[in-house]
Design brief:
Length: about 120
């Protein structure tokens, strides 16, 4: 597996994890499915851990996203990291698509995780 595929896959996994800690529970509670959130938290206590440490989750996923962007576009400042770039210099379209989806999930999770409560307080106060 070449570098862009590996780093983009890791970034997608990280973005999905950031989604499960912040955006997904908020969406389910908004839809009136708070019981589903309680069931998931009791069945998978890792979600609570991710929520409690969301600063670190977002920091690590942000670094992964940046590194994945660098390998996908071929803009790597570190000489040894250039070996991770595609040998042909062309990143496959599906890798770029997965990176874009990962970036969108990350931005959505970041917005919900940090701006959701203040915006809700403004709207419903």
């Amino acid at each position: 597996m070449d570098g862009p595929r590996w780093t983009t896959g890791a970034t997608f996994l990280g973005a999905f994890l950031s989604m499960t800690c912040c955006a997904l529970p908020s969406l389910l509670v908004t839809l009136g499915l708070g019981g589903a959130v309680a069931s998931v938290v009791s069945a998978a206590p890792g979600v609570t851990f991710l929520s409690a440490h969301k600063i670190w989750v977002f920091a690590v996923v942000g670094v992964l996203l940046g590194f994945s962007w660098a390998t996908t576009t071929g803009r790597l400042p570190i000489a040894w990291a250039r070996t991770l770039a595609c040998p042909t210099g062309q990143t496959p379209h599906n890798v770029r698509l997965v990176w874009r989806v990962s970036a969108a999930l990350y931005v959505l999770s970041l917005a919900v995780g940090y701006l959701g409560a203040p915006v809700a307080r403004l709207l419903w106060s």
